[in-house]
Amino acid sequence: MTEIPLTLTDAAAALRAGELTSAELVEESIARADALDDQLGVYLVRFDDDARARAAQADADFAAGIDRGPLQGIPIGVKDILAMAEGPTTAQSLILDPAWGEGKDAIVVERLKAAGAAITGKLTTMEFASAVPDPDKPFPLPRNPWDLDTWPGGSSSGTGAGVAAGLFLAGVGTDTGGSIRIPAIFCGVSGLMPTFGRVPNAGCVPLGYSLDHIGPLARSARDCGAFLGAIAGPDPRDPYAVDRGVDDYLAGPLDGSLAGLRVGVERINHLGVDPEEDPAVAATFEAAVARLGELGATVVEVTIPHYAEALVAAMITCVAESLAYHREDLRERAHDYHRSNRSMYPLGACFTGADYVQAQRVRRVAQRSLATVFADVDLIATPGATRVSPTYERMLTGGTMDVLAGVHTMYWDAVGNPALVVPMGFNGDGLPLSLQLAARPFEEALLVRAGDAYQQATDWHLRVPPLAAEVVAA
Amino acid sequence: MSAASPAAIDAMLDAAGLAPSPAEREQLLAMYERFKPGVEALYALPEARYEAPALVFQAEPKLTAWGA
């Protein structure tokens, strides 16, 4: 095992400086997967030979002066709800027809390949990206590299755990109620949920059609910006993709300053409301907010409007949209679904069509009200979660709602604004805690700038789980 | 308006052709009872009275379906 750069952007710079080859990066990724994945359960399938071939192509391209952008030659993992021609997509389920997407790439996968990424494999998730894992089904139970007894978060579980453990430098996640940000929070890495419609969803198994967002998990905010630049943008095959040009998400300025920005801090819906709030969260969050001020931001107090109503609207939307997709399979093959989904998806049958439409009216109300808050601030800061990653024992008995009770992500899925999480410290047991920043629609570049400034002043995002550090040292 | 009774939930599930096990039904009922008051509260939100839903129907279909 050898030391390689921790961040995608540092690796990209090293590749261009001739200090490293993509072949070396990919071999290191493979070696780490060999050493750790039996414990972590990151991969559902690995594409070692294909990744080696893409690395060789990337190195040849560098030698020929061909530069396809910052993902060229970078080892990247893909959540197994996106179609990829190299193998069938399972959505970590016995239900999904293997013929779905067979031999095809999701639009995002097409773009990653065109960007020269070395895709190392398909990654674990929760079944159809929802509820909690089922140990009775024939899939790996993904583990958190910070504590193997705990869950890495989900549903982009393998992506979060894999980035944290250094099995690849970045990966694709999807977020319907928090599934990019929750694993990023619990695994101590960065995760960026883009604006709804910023990244095309076609070729990705749906959970909630009007809530699903595809985006990156990586070590740093800057990495997430580099990744987003490769996958964002409209496509006529996706009905939800917004016909709007793509920003340069690294335009910054990435000078470490937040001068001129106003940050609204939201406490009332986040702190002191979770009966099981970790005792380290409040102080860690206040320290992160203070750091934003030290970096030049003007910090003010805000209240997110219609917070509780938006959460209910998102939940009703999700169960209704997911039941439409799953009803026939649930009728015919319920026993093949994971336990928690067998009780969650049918919830969609217990509310009416009018309830669904009312939820969409309330989402619009929340958007309008939120826009008035963003008229006065550029960013909103909250803790990403008020609990650390739960143990499997707790999660498998407590169920989906228990897991969601301590995370504060779903409001942003309801309204569609982009949100970034970045590590902000650890609790008393050494488990990661995260700061969440949200912005106006399509202002992902501002999130990258703010996250980057925070990460220039801190090193939480560069901490490596001891399990992974020991493997590299060995 | 109060939440629907367990019998009414059973009827809705039956109408949808869904037959959760007794344990799954109990979990589902717990989630329903947790969310139903919140759903009713969505109708009571004054700002939503004349709001249009966040749904957009486009008359022109997309010309190319992914995977076609």
Question: What does this molecule look like?
Answer:
The complex is a heterodimer of chains A (474) and B (68). With 474 residues, chain A is α/β, with parallel strands linked by helices. Chain A has 15 helices and eleven strands. Chain A has a single domain (8-308, 356-473), classed as Amidase signature (AS) enzymes (Alpha-Beta Complex). Helix content of chain A is 40%, strand content 13%. An eleven-stranded mixed β-sheet of chain A has the order 1-3-2-4-6-5-10-11-9-7-8, sandwiched between helices. In chain A, α5 (157-165) packs parallel to α6. Chain A is globular and about 60 Å long. Chain B has 68 residues and is mainly α. The model of chain B has no long low-confidence stretch (mean pLDDT 90). At the A-B interface, α9, α10 and α11 of A face α1 and α2 of B.
Give me a quick take on this structure.
Chain A has 474 residues and is an alpha/beta fold. In chain A, 40% of the residues lie in helices and 13% in strands.
Task: Spell the H/E element sequence of chain B.
Answer: HH
**Major beta sheet of chain A, specifics?**
11 strands, mixed
Report mean pLDDT of chain A, rounded to a whole number. Answer: 96
Which range does the strand content of chain B fall in? under 5%
Number of helical stretches of at least 4 residues of chain A: 15
Task: Note poorly predicted spans of chain B.
Answer: none
Distance, first to last CA of chain B: 46 Å
- Oligomeric state of this protein: heterodimer
